[in-house]
Amino acid sequence: MKGRFISLEGIEGTGKSTQAKLLSDYLKEKGFEVVLTEEPGGTQIGLRIRELLLSVEHKGMTAVTELLLYNASRSQHIREIILPAISRGAIIITDRFTDSTIAYQGFGRGIDQGLIDSIDLIATGRLRPDITILLDLDAEVGLKRNKGINKTDRLELEDLEFHQRVRNGYHNLAEKEPERIKLIDASADIQEIHNRISSIITNFIG
Length: 206
Ligand code: TMP
Hints:
The chain is of the alpha/beta class.
């Protein structure tokens, strides 16, 4: 089988990681080789970069430093994990990829799209997932859900308006690329969301 590259995207508190794990288990049960991974992270180097990015001690990090670090982690992730998995015919599921950078650093931080594109070309060579599941949720509800599980990182400390801009960014991406990006309402319960995702992915894999 040809390798498949799937990403899950969404603002904070949408249950992305839970859904990525459920999808991975579902596909493994069907007999596929699945690689479940995440950004920032996915490699040893990526995990070190993740610590730098998410530490609340790094409040002074500039927007461009942030942009470069997310891309540095991605570049390593692609070469070390994603491309090898695709070429051996595995299904790779990543919790976040380039759409996160466009939504968070572009729409959230206000970095110019042209600058994001030029760095993306260096880091990814424009590699994109074959299909993206976008979990959509009201930003206030998402942030409250995350507070409930005591999850705090540097970006989660941004105000509600920031997360609303990120959500708008995702909507904008989904409108531009409806074939690749499948928007799902993340306010439904976990099992119902999983059923929707697994049916979209089953159709896609064929
Ligand atoms: P996570 O909590 O879903 O693992 O994501 C880590 C944080 O990093 C989350 O707040 C979103 C943010 N992020 C970006 O701002 N840009 C990116 O390119 C990626 C991959 C994540």
